[in-house]
Amino acid sequence: MKTFGNRTGSGRRRWIALLCGAALLAPVSTQAAQNRWVPVNGPAQGGLVRALFIQSGGSYAGTTLIAGSYWGGVYRSTDGGDNWTAINGGLGDLRVRTLSVVGADSSTVYAATLGGGIYRTDDAHAATPSWVRVGENTLPCALIRSMSIPNDAPATIYASGCGTVYKSIDS
Q1: What pTM does this model have?
Q2: For 91-125, b where at least 16 C-beta lie within 10 A, e where not — what string?
Q3: Which residues pair with 110 in a beta bridge?
Q4: pLDDT, tens digit, 9 for 90 and up, residues 24-45
Q5: Around Cβ 145, how many Cβ atoms within 10 Å?
């Protein structure tokens, strides 16, 4: 007969089962609880959200989310994603592919669209921001796939579309 200390084989199995049960009932570590994802509401009418950022300036800093959606344009949530409002004044194409933010206070936002080119608002903190199209006569492609703005050169925009990367230093 095999022994484990002074326990028999069946006693050892009970001991191991008791230890395993205790491990399963042990509290989950704080680190594990912090690493889980929970869903929040997205813009219901906007469809697929393609771009998302947290607005860092203005009266709702830290809790304001700006979302670019594929079918509904740009939306804002001032309560961490529970409720959303469309902020599309002047946005000529509601199929937003990506958003880019300029500056630390994020009051200037660019929206790249699937067929209408690039739009800019300089008053993203306003209750009803207004969007204007940039590069309308100079950007040869209106189908923008992605866009980036360097932190050290906020007047420079890189945009990709129609198989090419474009650069503007005055948009």
Answers
A1: 0.74
A2: bbbbbbbbbbbbeeebbbbbbbbbebbbbbbeebb
A3: 100, 120
A4: 444 555 555 677 888 888 887 7
A5: 15
